[in-house]
Design brief:
single chain; 106 residues; mainly alpha; globular
């Protein structure tokens, strides 16, 4: 099972920590913010597409990018992405969908 951190690391092409080390939540969010900063500079359209795909709250994204936001946009967006992944993981663990047997049921 993937964790929110590994899901986001894969989605944003972030390198895994060296020598099997794990990050604290704040360390991970800071590294995620660094990756988001890169994506904001060079791959903004893909970053917004990822936010849409992951169903990140649109109003939250707008607040993160607002000039009067309490923290830099990359950090605010990193927090939103991480919080959304935590909610998705909690939902996956509590709500089990039955397997689909019909090949045409897509």
């Amino acid at each position: 099972m993937q964790t929110p951190a590994t899901t986001l690391m894969n989605a944003l092409d972030m390198p895994a920590p060296k020598d099997g080390r794990t990050f604290s939540e704040e360390e991970f969010i800071q590294r995620l913010a660094d990756a988001v900063d890169y994506w904001m500079q060079y791959r903004m359209e893909e970053l917004m597409s990822l936010c849409y795909t992951l169903d990140v709250n649109e109003a939250g994204v707008a607040r993160a990018f607002h000039p009067s936001a309490p923290e830099p946009a990359n950090l605010g967006l990193a927090r939103l992405l991480y919080a959304r992944q935590l909610r998705r993981l909690a939902t996956q663990q509590t709500i089990k969908s039955p397997p689909v047997d019909d090949a045409d049921a897509w």
